[in-house]
Predict the 3D structure of the following.
Amino acid sequence: GAGVSQSPSNKVTEKGKDVELRCDPISGHTALYWYRQSLGQGLEFLIYFQGNSAPDKSGLPSDRFSAERTGGSVSTLTIQRTQQEDSAVYLCASSLGIAADTQYFGPGTRLTVL
Amino acid sequence: ELKVEQNPLFLSMQEGKNYTIYCNYSTTSDRLYWYRQDPGKSLESLFVLLSNGAVKQEGRLMASLDTKARLSTLHITAAVHDLSATYFCAGSQGGSEKLVFGKGTKLTVNP
């Protein structure tokens, strides 16, 4: 079946611009996660959505970062006023939302801020 | 706060040899995950370990969990070139589903 999909696969932007990254989770998965991967920081948790519960935003690095999940499915991660340190691969994952369930990762969006 | 440490960070080995990657974590972790990442690719789930003494095997890879020692291992048996990749362990804590990852072990298997 279809896995987690993300778009765009690559995004190059100028410092100060806003960007939106999209994630389509696996159908039927109620939990959705955003992580980012960079050389300096490794893999870091950003935000987690589970069903209709309030999202866990504890990993968002600054208030320039926000995310929403519409209709319990597609999610958008928005970064406002991008900075060079935001350059990273942004990974989305989804799971059934059952404790200890495997998180399935998408291919990622490589963001480059010039 | 949960911290996860892997070692070694780089591992170069010959085909046919055995080796172990270690994953230590700082506080109680509800469960332990192992993922594989090929260059330029995303993360592929390998194992989920839920309880003390859990052991799981898939092909040439075997993962185990010792919650008392706060240690998980990923053992590679008779390595082949196709196993070359970066391997990550990750834990979660306190009922949270968010994963805390180690820095990864880049494995290179040489013919």
